[in-house]
Amino acid sequence: MSKSALTAKKRDNSKNPRQLRSSGKLPATLYGKDTESISLELDAKEFAIAYKKDKNAIFTLSIDKDSYDSIVKKVQRETLKDSLLNVEFQRIRSDATVKMIVPLEIVGVSPAVKAGGTLSSDLTEIEVECLPANIPSIIQVDISVLENLDESITLADVKYPQGVQPTGTPETPVLRVSAPTSAEPEVSEEEGAEAVAATAEEAAKE
């Protein structure tokens, strides 16, 4: 778990979101259980740098004289320019679990892949549940356990940091290794002989 401090202020409702963005500000919302949501604005560049560093960090928002620990639940982007449009923060408590999407990192060497097998990913990130203090930035998946073709690693097989649990079905595949696809289909001796005979018969007719 990492932490990042951001300064925000309550949004000036006299300005629309486009005006805020044109002035370098990012519209945002802070919400939480049993609390009213707060419309905010913060420095777009400052948030972009912090978010790029660790998307799963705990963001401490300083608003006037108060501060709130939060996590990023949703980031809205402009499709073509990939620019930030809006961000949603969720307030957290140290004693309450949260659900987070965590990227996977492949580590190790698979004997099956080394022997020519093809490694494919069913998932590149997974949802986990844990206390805020245990939020991981990444989860490593060790593929050295894949010794034979047609073996897979499921959610249940992944080694999670202490206090972290996946929310998905344990049998859900994460990675698998399969036999390489042959460029040409294999032909049996009998099929080969039949093909030669057919070719000879056609040649004789000519």
Strand tally is 13
Distance between the termini: 78 Å
Spans of at least 5 consecutive residues whose pLDDT stays below 50 are: none
CATH superfamily of the largest domain: Ribosomal Protein L25, Chain P
Derived from helix and strand composition plus strand pairing, the structural class reads alpha+beta
Shape: elongated
Q: In the CATH hierarchy, what is the architecture of the largest domain at level 2?
A: Beta Barrel
How many helical stretches? Answer: 4
Order of helices and strands: EHEEHEEEEHEEEEEEH
Supply the CATH class of the largest domain.
Answer: Mainly Beta
Whole-number count of domains: 2
Overall pLDDT confidence? 88
CATH topology descriptor of the largest domain: Ribosomal Protein L25, Chain P
Helix content: 10-25%
The gyration radius over C-alpha positions equals 27 Å
How would a crystallographer describe the biggest sheet?
6 strands, mixed, barrel
Characteristics:
alpha+beta; elongated; four-stranded mixed beta sheet; six-stranded mixed beta barrel; 206 residues; RNA Polymerase Alpha Subunit, Chain A, domain 2
Descriptive account of the structure:
The chain has 206 residues and is α+β, with helices and mostly antiparallel strands. It has two domains: 3-92, Ribosomal Protein L25, Chain P; 99-178, RNA Polymerase Alpha Subunit, Chain A, domain 2 (Beta Complex). The protein contains four helices and 13 strands. The strands form three sheets. It has a six-stranded mixed beta barrel with strand order 1-3-2-6-5-4. A four-stranded mixed β-sheet has the order 10-7-9-12, with no helix packed on it. Strands 8-13-11 form a three-stranded antiparallel β-sheet, with no helix packed on it. β4 and β5 form a beta hairpin.
